[in-house]
Amino acid sequence: MRTDDASAQVAAYLHQHETKSLLRFITCGSVDDGKSTLIGRLLHDTHLLLDDQVAALEADSRRHGTQGEDIDFALLVDGLAAEREQGITIDVAYRYFGTDKRKFIVADCPGHEQYTRNMATGASTADLAIVLVDARKGLLTQTRRHSYIVSLLGIRHVVLAVNKMDLVDYSQARFDEIVASYRALAESLGIEYVTAIPLSALKGDNMLEPSIATPWYSGETLLGHLETVQVQRDHSDIGFRMPVQWVCRPNQGFRGFAGTVVAGEVTPGTEIVVLPSGRRSTVARIVTADGDLDHVQAGQAVTLTLSDEIDASRGDVIALARQPPEVSDQFAAHLLWLGEDSLLPGRPYWLKIGTRTVGASVTEIKHKIDVNTQEYLAAKSIDLNEVAYCNLHLDQPVPFEAYADNQVLGGFILIDRQSNATVAAGTLDFALRRAGNIHWQHVDVDQSARSRIKHQQPRCLWFTGLSGSGKSTIANLVEKRLLAMGHHTYLLDGDNVRHGLNKDLGFTDEDRVENIRRVAEVAKLMTDAGLIVLVSFISPFRAERRMARELFSEGEFLEVFVDTPLALAEQRDVKGLYAKARRGELRNFTGIDSPYEVPEAPELHLRTVHVEPAELAEQIVRALGLG
User: Which of 150, 196, 410, 451 has its CA 20 to 30 A from that of 494?
Assistant: First the structure.
């Protein structure tokens, strides 16, 4: 063969490989349904393993396998030592393979309920889901939970892989029974396309070739379906969208906005709008490392320069001016809770959507969903792996689209502010329209005017500590001292407020969060009126104290930790509350069966052992610069 011909053939082969479509899919279902075995069989039978990989697999099968002298294909995917020891999948395992027709990225997702968060991670980027069902067991709770998540994350194509058919003698009746049950579930979840295939991943039945063991089945093989299914989502009709990843400013003569186009297309000269600011301009250039382009579409990473010097930064969205996305700060959303601690309405979190991160809280749990029946259940909190429909409030407006129209601008995660751990994944449904009807009313008399007439600097002194620590006693002494000095004050005491504003609240974690939220808002209004506000609440959770602090301007909020050992607080307990809690007569009592999270960096740390309350009160007055 001539060298030129060989080079041309290589170039043609490489071009064909580069232009093949890519399918991202997941395998999911209940534990021990054969997900890892299915992927291992696919990799092995498509001859994509190198000789040394096959040799290692055979050796591992003898050492860790569950198939006797036969190859245990699951070991190709279960790479963690703990996975091999327990025979389960724990983390999401990604594998790449390809055939002459298509390239694939597959995520093998764990089946155990405690690793549901890992399954959601794998599903977030998938176009198709293979839901495995053990032919002996049928649909299980985790099958339904995973299918619900598949639906929630917008995956429209599902392969129902009825596995281990060899263990039910390849019964057509059993296959039909499972398929009927699953189609009913898929219809209730809104999953549009379900392809059911009878399989034995272990023996290879209907994996790559039709099986003689299922003469009654005339449909596609699993690989045949994966190679031909069309799953592309067309977002061109919603218009151009590009979240700004970063502002590129290599020199004074160039200012561009870099990001990945997530929908639509754009050319130089197109009129665009930058959201949420609403500033308009036109695209001047489309810049890439290989030179300027005259056209760009979804999936491409580029840098745009604009005709006008307008302000845009990371997290903003550049969109087609005549067809922009909505902007809002309040939403209805579906939420999958991934945190070990429960979701509590009112607690502050970080919300990341696209390239933007903002403060957020769940204002209301409308209902949670029973994954078995899809029944709506009333709820005040959401626990690990539960799904709920909620109202969200953000501390600033963001551009968005419904998740069904745009996954990037409609999908989000919630992040714990203390640990930075991801605690939830969610999808936006729609903006709460009433939010758009509420605007700040301008008033001419502001805080500075109110404080000038009182000749004082407004402050919020937030006293926190155990019941019986002396918070109220010290706060009362501070207020008396300030009043004697001619200052305008108000004391919000935990017990007193529960007689009025918060008399509808109990002492569950959920009610404690709402208790602090309401009091913090009232304290903010009082400081806006020019007062020095003293707040005396146990306020046991750091997250709520941080939420309260963030309502105030810099230097306006002082956290006062009244530090008293639990044993001493119990001795001082004139109300007998600790004794009742010890006897089990008083539930959710801080310090006994409900935690108190000690402040990490309070402005004032008052240690009450061997120090009189009057002396501690004077310390506070001096700290205010008034003593």
Answer: 451
